[in-house]
Write a structure and sequence with these properties.
binds flavin-adenine dinucleotide, 14 helices, 464 residues, alpha/beta, binds nicotinamide-adenine-dinucleotide
Length: 464
């Protein structure tokens, strides 16, 4: 059996793993990365990138559909049609360019990629089933970056009509009736996209609200848009299984008689679970945090020399958290003094309109005992938003009442995802309300709503 010795072994080439390996390569560390699928992991192949491609295509389609009817801009055009298989081909092209990009970057930085499924033999030895036979890899340091997978409901196993986000991102035809179980990030992002493409969409959510982690003010504009798109939202409703004929979803509606919702496809998006099985976790007996691998503020696990990063280590399961952890771990292994000291991990929900959160919401700040000042500025009073038909939503700031240190910034609105960088920067730099208020924001931009929100919180907004 072939055997390789290396200083660093990374298992999984998702965003966490490949960034860790690239940074390690840059720092001159002898690095091997093992990947069973394609470079880029969930994010690049079946997550962030293909979902945003589909969302973009659906937005373009919806825009043309809107312009083909009565519209304020005076534009007329004919009704659009779409060949979803072509859209998917275009999306696959982007994914494949990025696959090659990641593979190229790993190579450029001297990282050796091994194809296959890795299994621990002991804490420092891994066996991989490569296409050319088994291979043993021994390493001084190991980084576990095995990611996450969709949660399957036992009474609605994936297969046939019942699909996960992975299949939803590869459909060749637009389902006439799409029922979505779970009104979280994936359910709403993809549900809105398919509704724009023409599906009749129903969302079944077990909690009392969709996107239960966000407050009512942030969700209100999303609810309005869901309604305008004709998406039916059933909250406090649990899925129970398929009907006997298999053509409907059975749901339990507040203890009353079961309801049947006809469906051509049932997309189950009730969360994701860490990939902790099938790679020999039992051989190394790591300390766990519930289903996740326990890590400290250096991403070290309970075993010396073994690190874990990304979705396998818990919430928030976001690509940019995985990447930041990967970069930090490579630097720690190179001997640098690093600890996880991020003030915030911004999150964007790519619904229509989008939601951005960075730092603490008003309620979270109060729950932590802060005495706060908070206010928001509506896009209705922002010239750029008005002139781009983007008037829905607002930017909200949460600051300490005593010294005005900004604790959190949230926004909901069309295109606000690009404001997230400014929000995170303000929090990481320890900005106070006065700093944001005194920063010249270019006119006319949606970002002026951030400056105005700071001014309003200080009691002297200029444009409202
Ligand atoms: P992953 O990306 O899951 O990668 C893990 C890799 O490890 C996989 O390629 C897997 O094949 C490999 N692997 C696992 N075990 C082994 C083994 N034993 N041997 C070899 N290889 C192995 N996040 C965002 O921040 N923004 C978004 O817009 C966003 N959109 C999303 C949309 C969808 C539909 C989904 C499903 C997810 C989305 N996410 C988004 C979440 C994001 O994809 C994850 O947070 C991110 O991919 C986690 O990165 P990771 O490196 O931890 O693991
Ligand atoms: P989620 O946790 O966002 O939402 C799952 C929803 O399903 C919740 O609202 C929950 O109450 C509901 N639910 C759970 N069990 C149910 C049941 N039996 N019946 C009906 N509803 C039920 O999970 P997700 O949408 O699957 O996404 C998984 C993760 O992927 C997210 O937490 C996020 O970390 C990541 N993600 C991020 C983005 C982004 O950053 N834009 C996009 C997609 C996914």
């Amino acid at each position: 059996m072939k055997e390789i010795k290396t200083k660093l072994l990374v298992i999984g080439a998702g965003p966490g793993g490949y960034i860790c390996a690239i940074r390690a390569g840059q720092l001159g560390i002898d690095t091997v990365i093992i990947e069973a699928g394609k470079p880029g992991g969930t994010c690049l192949n079946v997550g962030c990138i293909p979902s945003k491609a589909l969302i973009h295509a659906a937005e373009e389609f919806d825009k043309v559909a809107h312009l083909s009817g009565q519209n304020a801009l005076g534009i007329s055009t004919s009704k659009p049609s779409i060949d979803l298989s072509k859209t998917m081909e275009w999306k696959d092209g982007i994914v494949s360019r990025l696959n090659s990009g990641v593979a190229g970057l790993l190579k450029k930085h001297g990282v050796k990629t091994v194809e296959g499924w890795a299994k621990f033999r002991d804490g420092k030895t891994v066996e991989v089933d490569t296409p050319t036979g088994p291979q043993i890899i021994r390493a001084e340091h190991v980084v576990i970056a095995t990611g996450s997978a969709p949660i399957e409901l036992p009474f609605l196993p994936f297969g046939g009509k019942v699909i996960s986000s992975t299949q939803a991102l590869a459909l060749q035809e637009i389902p006439e009736k799409l029922v979505i179980v779970g009104g979280g990030y994936i359910g709403l992002e993809l549900g809105m996209a398919y509704a724009k493409l023409g599906s009749d969409v129903t969302v079944v959510e077990a909690a009392k609200s969709i996107l239960p982690q966000y407050d009512k003010d942030l969700i209100r504009p999303i609810m309005k848009r869901l309604d305008a798109l004709g998406i039916k939202v059933l909250t406090n409703v649990k899925a129970k299984g398929l009907s006997t004929k298999g053509n409907s979803l059975l749901v339990e509606n507040g203890g009353n008689t079961d309801q049947k919702i006809p469906a051509d496809k049932i997309l189950v998006t009730v969360g994701r679970k860490p990939v902790t099985q099938g790679w020999g976790l039992e051989e190394i007996d790591l300390r766990m945090d519930g289903p996740f691998i326990h890590i400290n503020d250096k991403c070290q696990t309970s075993m010396r020399g073994t690190y874990a990063i990304g979705d396998v280590t818990g919430e928030p399961m976001l690509a940019h958290r995985a990447m930041a952890q990967g970069e930090m771990v490579a630097e720690i292994i190179a001997g640098e003094k690093r600890t996880w000291d991020k003030v915030c991990i911004p999150a964007v929900c790519f619904t229509d309109p989008e939601i951005v959160t960075a730092g603490l919401s008003p309620n979270e700040a109060k729950d932590l005992g802060h005495d706060i000042k908070t206010d928001s500025f509506p896009f209705q009073a922002n010239g750029r938003a008005m002139s781009a038909e983007r008037e829905e939503g607002f930017v909200r700031i949460v600051a300490r009442a005593d010294n005005h240190l900004v604790l959190g910034i949230q926004a909901v609105g069309v295109g606000v995802s690009e404001l997230s960088a400014g929000f995170a920067l303000a929090l990481e730099m320890g900005a106070r309300l006065e700093d944001i208020a005194a920063t010249i924001h270019a006119h006319p931009t949606q970002s002026e709503a951030l400056q105005e929100a700071a001014l309003k919180t200080l009691g002297h907004a200029l444009h409202i």
